[in-house]
Design goal:
Layout: H1 2-11, E1 18-22, H2 29-35, E2 43-47, H3 52-58, E3 62-65, H4 69-75, E4 80-84, H5 90-98, E5 102-107, H6 113-124, H7 127-140, H8 145-153, E6 165-168, H9 174-181, H10 198-208, E7 214-220, E8 224-232, E9 238-244, H11 253-264, E10 270-273, H12 279-287, E11 291-292, E12 298-301
Parallel strand pairs: 1-2, 3-4, 4-5, 9-10
Antiparallel strand pairs: 6-7, 7-8, 8-9, 10-12, 11-12
Helix pairs in contact: 1-6, 4-7
Length: 315
């Protein structure tokens, strides 16, 4: 795979340095060493490195198989053009591609190598997209795997006993979010109560993909029924807001979603501003363990104490 990719990059006009990392027993190592002088760009061939994290951090982009190394690259914010080289990579590659952290070039057996090279070079010429991919990767692989697994095994439940889950929002949720945002009365208690136009919504959605200080989750019961978001604030606090589809209101979904969020982000102090008269929000936040925080409509939920399994609250 690697020699053919390097040749495709050369044919596409690439001329910057490349680092190639191979395992100690890689059959292509000697081929790469012999090939290096004939390439129109300098390459460094590294064998069986013990500082892979440092190598990934130093790179602008990587081309690799869609195996488990994709998760390492995502956690370090390294944009990747990925190639499926085995059947068991299909599902993972597609999921990480959908999350916006990689570009999936296709299956190796039918791969268009010039298209792969053009894809990689196009990304290198588009720093804003690379930045977006980097942030999406770090958001996707953010060290919260244990919390996600615990929620999947034992989720908070609504009034009917249905498990309520949270999943990171993806670009494909744009239409769904627009429907919720434009439901009559849905924005009554928001700071900006005016419903966005479709163009305004999509422009915001594109910007959202680049917001490292915003976590947006779709509430599932098990179908999507709303969203909860966490915004980083200038003063270091983390503000929570939530919207539940009116068809599912009054069923304990919102309270369960807030409890799920508390367990997903156990180390963060969470805050919410609830406007006077918004009794429904005041009720679900209170049931989820939030307490008033100095008046002025602000509520807070303190971090979960290590080993407690539940949120600590302070009046």
């Amino acid at each position: 795979m690697t020699p053919r990719v390097l040749s495709a990059l050369a044919d596409a006009g690439y001329r910057a340095p490349v680092t190639v990392i191979v395992g100690a027993s890689a059959e292509s190592a000697s081929v790469l060493t012999e090939m290096a002088p004939r390439l129109p760009y300098p390459i460094s061939v590294l064998h069986d490195v013990d500082d892979m994290a440092a190598q990934m951090t130093a790179a602008d982009i990587a081309i690799m198989a869609a195996g488990s190394s994709l998760l390492e690259a995502a956690s370090l914010g390294l944009p990747v053009v990925a190639v499926v080289t085995a059947d068991n990579q299909q599902r993972q590659g597609a999921a990480i591609h959908e999350a916006g952290a990689i570009r999936l070039a296709g299956d190796w057996n039918s791969l268009d190598l010039p298209a792969l090279a053009d894809m990689a070079l196009g990304l290198l010429r588009d720093p804003s997209t690379l930045q977006c991919m980097s942030e999406n990767g770090m958001r996707l692989c953010n060290g919260r795997g244990a919390s996600r697994a615990a929620l999947a095994i034992s989720p908070p439940r609504d009034n009917a006993g249905n498990g309520i889950g949270l999943r990171p929002a993806s670009f494909n949720d744009a239409e769904l979010m627009f429907r919720w945002q434009t439901t009559p009365g849905a924005r009554k208690w928001m700071r900006n109560s005016a419903a966005p136009s479709y163009a305004e919504h999509m422009a915001w959605w594109q910007r959202r993909l680049q917001m490292i200080d915003l976590d947006l989750y779709i509430v599932e019961a098990p179908k999507p029924v709303g969203y909860v978001r966490v915004d980083g604030m200038a003063d270091g606090r983390h503000e929570v807001s939530i919207m539940i589809d009116p068809d599912h209101a009054g069923r304990g979904v919102g309270t369960a979603a807030l409890r799920a969020l508390r367990r997903l982000l156990p180390e963060l102090p969470l805050h919410a501003e609830i406007r006077p008269g918004n009794l429904a929000s005041a009720s679900i936040f209170a049931k989820a363990g939030y307490r008033q925080d100095g008046g002025n409509g602000w509520y807070r939920s303190d971090p979960i104490a290590a080993g407690s399994g539940d949120a600590r609250t302070t009046p």
